[in-house]
Amino acid sequence: MRLSLPMLSAAVGLGLTAATFGAVPATAAPTPASAPASASASAPYAGYSGSAAEAKANQAFFQAVIKSVAEKRAANPSSAAAVTVVYNASRAPSFSAEIARSTQIWNSAVSNVKLQSGSASSADFTYREGNDSRGSYASTDGHGGGYVFLDYAQSEQYDPIRITAHETGHVLGLPDHYSGPCSELMSGGGPGPSCTNAIPNATERSRVNQLWANGLAQALDKALSKSNAR
């Protein structure tokens, strides 16, 4: 379960092995499928490993999303005080329940940012589904065009709500921590398939609130400065 989106024009892979919920290079696009595929006993999702490149990609994904949100707010300064991150799930219909539950979990867990479903044209990121041997991941062009890819086979081996909530945690700024316990959402697949916890712990909740209080303010200052300079 891992997300990572680069702010560069090409996406950076989170999971460099087939064993992760991660991100893949933009050049290696996932193969879409119209129906979920059954997970085989040999599905290569058992191992997890982190790297500096993955951590950098995760941070880039968050920066891309927060930049998109800040630019919208700069263009519409009279918008509501609550910070809203808009997503579109029209390309992941098989995971509609999981995405809705993940949204509910995060909106109940944090106060400085809220997730909201919207049109594809207004979305800060989108969800997609299909089959990919590398599992679930996220990718972005660095301009609010990012997406979270949810893999069919992986979601049969690991809890799909945990996968979705974990990946969404990256959208909100949290890094992977595979050595953590099951009670830590961002430990992802580290604790193994038996772990079904999809709730961020107190530390994770606090970190997201902090990121969206401070990070957005900085991004908004830049967006406003850029807007005023025109």
From TrEMBL:
It catalyses: Hydrolyzes proteins with a preference for Tyr or Phe in the P1' position. Has no action on amino-acid p-nitroanilides. This is Extracellular small neutral protease. One of its GO terms (cellular component) is extracellular region. Zn(2+) binds at residues 166, 170, 176. Pfam families: Peptidase_M7. The lineage of its organism: Bacteria, Bacillati, Actinomycetota, Actinomycetes, Kitasatosporales. Binds 1 zinc ion per subunit. Keywords: Calcium, Disulfide bond, Hydrolase, Metal-binding, Metalloprotease, Protease, Secreted, Signal, Zinc. Its EC number is 3.4.24.77. It is found in: Secreted. The keyword rRNA-binding does not apply. It comes from Streptomyces olivochromogenes.
